[in-house]
Amino acid sequence: MSTPEFQIPSHVPPDRVRDVDLYDLPGASEDVHLAWKRVQDESPAVFYTPRYGGYWVIARAELLNQVWPDHERFSSDRAIGIPRQLGMPRQLPIEADPPEHQFFRHPLSVALSPKAVQTLSERARALSIEIIDRLKPRGECEFVADYAAHVPMEVFLSIVNLPSSDREWLIQRAEVMTRGRSLEAKQQALQEVFGYLGSWLKQRSEHPGEDLFSRILQIKVGERPISFEEAMSECALALFGGLDTVAGTMAFFARYLATHPEHRRELAEHPDRIPGAIEELLRRHSIPTVGRVLTQDVTLDGVTMKAGDYVQLTACLHGLDELKWPKPLEVDFGRPGLVDHMAFGRGAHKCPGANLARSELRVFLEEWLKRIPDFQIKPGDHAVTATGAVAGVLHLPLVWKA
Q1: pLDDT digits (tens, 9 = 90+) for 317-359
Q2: Cα dist from 333 to 8, 376, 397, whole Å
Q3: Can you name the CATH fold of 14-399?
């Protein structure tokens, strides 16, 4: 393909070009993962899309295993967003490579230590029980707004000691940052969040506490203190990550169980299988897409990508690859090797909140299935999913017998 509106670099073989738009996949509103599976089935293992200035896409698990942790050749420095967000502040720590990366990541590791996660899990469980008990007599809910938009957000806001009354405003801006196509809209949302965070960070710098934002302000990058701009960037990224990813994953889990009663009954009757089920559902419903920039020429799958080229890594293309996972569209709670999925990334940039996410997902499944073991998508309505830098569920109407 070489249509007039796209300029294909001379080093890109014509047979490797596919017109794939991360923010506009055909069929993504019905099922974003099936939309990505069609892309995988119809494309080479490494292909080039001319969208958003042009970039390579790694479409198979074996190659994603190689590329994701390789920060020396596939750098994250100012490269995580698609399209590349030149002129915007670095998103820290994910747009910093080792060794600099470790300084920015450390406070996240402290805030999300096993001991901290245990306390946060207790908060998540109490909140989950309260919400589910309130929903159960109604016999229906819009899962995204009534449950998924509450628990992980409230838990995260407690980590950073921000008021829960600000949750809706923050969620709206997180939606633009993760699934918006317009760079101008992303910049506007980021500036609004920076304005919001600025007053809080000024307050925390003058009166530090034990919250995550206070710890970020105390970072030393080598011998120098973190700059206020760097602290703002890291706090903003932590905010977006905490507000969006777990809620989206939770909604994909609920959507799957609502349409697969045999799997739902298995977990309701055997809650001890929930931890393994979480790994399989993560494998089947991975949601992040990240970017990398090449620091040198690299040859993969017989094609040479040049230094400076941009590369897209989509986690679900790992989990949906039949060369790695037999019958990948099927969910098998007894599937071997489940911890090898890519839902949380790999290498230095593996998600620092992975254990908290697993804990919140476990709390959701345990408490929901204990109280509402039989539920389905509301007849006459349907789920709506979304593509983007973080895939999500926009609408999930559930019903059950009250």
Answers
A1: 999 999 999 999 999 999 988 789 999 999 999 999 999 999 9
A2: 44, 20, 25
A3: Cytochrome p450 (1.10.630)
- Please, which residues bridge with residue 57 across strands? 47, 312
Residue 181 confidence class, pLDDT cut points 50, 70, 90: low
Q: How far apart are CA 90 and CA 7, in angstroms?
A: 27
pLDDT in tens, 101-116: 999 999 999 889 999 9
For residues 354 and 318, is the Cβ–Cβ distance under 8 A? Answer: no
Paired strand residues for 288: 390
The Cα–Cα gap between 95 and 298 comes to 20
pLDDT for 4 beyond 60: no
Instruction: Give domain limits for the chain.
Output: 14-399
Confidence at 2, pLDDT banded by 50, 70, 90: very low
Rg (the chain; Cα; Å)? 21
Contacts of 306 (CB under 8 A, 6+ apart): 9, 11, 294, 297
Residue 347 gets the label, from left (phi > 0), alpha (psi -120 to 50) or beta, of left
Residue type for position 214: S
Who's near 189: CB < 8 A, 6+ residues apart?
173, 176, 177, 180
The percentage of residues in the chain with a pLDDT greater than 70, rounded to a whole number, is: 96
Tell me the two tokens of residue 18. 């596919």
Nearest CA to 106 out of 224, 213, 219, 204 is that of: 219
Q: CA angle at residue 263 from 261 to 264, to 5 degrees?
A: 60
